Amino acid sequence: MTPDSYIIPLVAKAIKELYNTEIETKLIQPQPTRKEFEGDVTVVTFPFLKISHASPEQTANQIGEYLKNNCPMVESFNVVKGFLNIKLSQAFWNETFKSIYESENYGQLPQSGKTVMVEFSSPNTNKPLHLGHIRNILLGWSISKLMEANGHNVVKTNIVNDRGIHICKSMLAWLMTANGATPESTGKKGDHFVGDYYVKFNDILKAQAKEIAAKGTPLEDPEKEKERVKEAEKIAPVQIEAQNMLRKWENGDPDIVSLWKTMNSWVYTGFDETYDRLGVNFDIIYYESDTYKLGKKTVLEGLDKGVFERHPDGSVWCDLSKDGLDQKLLLRSDGTSVYMTQDIGTAQERFNKYHFDQMVYVVGDEQNYHFQVLKLILSKLGFEWANSIYHMSYGMVELPEGKMKSREGTVVDADDLLQTMYETAKETSLELGKLSDMDEKEQNALFEMLGLGALKYFIIKVDPRKKMLFNPKESIDFNGNTGPFIQYTHARIKSILRKAKEQNFECKVTAAPLLDKEIEVIKILNTFPSKVKEAGDAKSPALIANYCYDLAKEFNQYYHDVTILKEENEEIRSQRLAIASTVAKVLVKGMDILGIQLPERM
């Protein structure tokens, strides 16, 4: 029972009794009372003035008096202009806390019967996962968990971009420079191994382009010289050969397809290691090499129906100028596909199998236009479910030194980052010196949990739509709005509960009077289900992250000021243990939505 759900029908009844008028409940809009005023819930009376025919203050006082005299759980009220501040009784908060404490899966909303598909990760098989992928993966996972908490049937999916010119670049560089080397022969993780050849291709391309550009008359303007080199890249032999390789792949050349399968298998093995460490998995994985075929077939069908048009060079386009956009390429002049082709095919396959109510694409804001176009094209093709597509557009992750570039090798590698977080957590924990009763295996598990918790929380706590600057050192802090602070709070509560058990202290809800600080904790606990719904509607796990921080912070203040284990009154002590236990339970649920584990001790 929330203060809002309790007060709304009471105010409606008061208005009917006082003014002999039925009122629409939507006009009654309670809100939490501001900190500077006494009360738990505030009702704005201005919408009632036409009914009361009185001033705002008079109306508020009349309703307040009615509630105080007729509602036993309304303890008192005060009026500030037209705002009615209502203080609820101890009985209300005791009853509210009892329902929270006894709830088996508090914060889990009822089943909706809807299916939500969430696509995230979506890597290319020409490079290892990096920091940008990390934000995508963590957001996708937590949005999936958030949708589950909102009662939806969730299908977690990944589309692997395993074909295209970028894949051919890695393959060609391997043929040119590897001399048969493999991940096994070099001792290198498969995705890193293949990614090195993508960077090597770019090195070869730049060298050839500079050589071509050097044959022309030197230009004094450095910027124009750069432009000439960039243009030369288009005609460099290695670039032409990569394009030829792509055509051969699409035509099923056995040697090219065999190499493609081999190099992709190296990458998949590497990806799986990273996913496992992050604690992430997928219900179904799609591959662009499969789905582009259906997309290509659909585009050609759309061409026959007049939805698309073929240009003189043989390429196929969709004219979106009447929709305020431009023309979108769907098939190149040589018949090869583009990303849009693949996405058209993938969307069809997914709907045909799962009949989703919503398809959430977790993709960076650099692709806003792409998904705007995808929805339009699918609509033009007659797919009514196109309106079910939702692009969860998130801001890019940047470093103090600027934007990352994969082909130049200037990225923060995901595996290196995970190891750095582990080492930082280890260093920080050992400095605190509280692990003497843990063996080495337990310590390593704790360092991993803290490192991952710090990374995940630091990234998820930021509104996903905003760009963010990543700083590993800030994320591992055991104080402030960080993952380790919340993890430490949970470990502290579990330590209290262990000591209570050792002394045979009971943990239960009693009729003991509640302190103001206890009511403040209960108020935050009471908002958890509504926060889950709010975060789900907004598809923003950041709201859950910051809720968990607020709850942990409030509990720590409570713990600092109130005796728990040393409290002599049995009823009071039992109730305080129940409050601590419930805070731990809600923190576990909230942080699980974020994909973060909480330690029993640290």
Provide a compact summary of the structure.
With 602 residues, this protein is of the alpha/beta class.
The main sheet comes to: 5 strands, parallel
Total number of beta strands: 14
Radius of gyration: 30 Å
| CATH C-level class of the largest domain | Alpha Beta
Main sheet strand line-up: 7-6-5-11-12
CATH architecture of the largest domain: 3-Layer(aba) Sandwich
**What's the CATH superfamily of the largest domain, by name?**
HUPs
Number of helices, where a helix is a run of at least 4 consecutive DSSP H or I residues = 22
As for the number of domains, it is 3
* Global structural class: alpha/beta
CATH topology of the largest domain: Rossmann fold
Global shape? globular
Q: Helicity range of the residues?
A: 55-70%
* Percent in strands: 5-15%
Structural overview:
With 602 residues, the protein is α/β, with parallel strands linked by helices. It folds into 3 domains: 3-88, 2-Layer Sandwich (Gyrase A, domain 2), CATH 3.30.1360.70; 115-289 and 354-408, HUPs (Rossmann fold, 3-Layer(aba) Sandwich), CATH 3.40.50.620; 414-593, Isoleucyl-tRNA Synthetase, Domain 1 (Orthogonal Bundle), CATH 1.10.730. It is built from 22 helices and 14 strands. It has helices spanning 3-19, 49-52, 56-70, 90-102, 131-149, 165-177, 183-186, 190-213, 222-233, 237-250, 254-278, 288-304, 339-354, 368-380, 414-432, 440-460, 472-475, 483-502, 516-526, 528-538, 542-561, 570-593, and strands at 31-32, 41-44, 74-80, 83-88, 115-119, 153-160, 284-287, 309-310, 316-319, 327-331, 358-364, 389-394, 397-398, 468-469. Strand 8 (309-310) and strand 9 (316-319) form a beta hairpin. The longest helix is centred in the middle third of the chain and has 25 residues, at 254-278. Mean pLDDT is 93; it is low at 402-409.
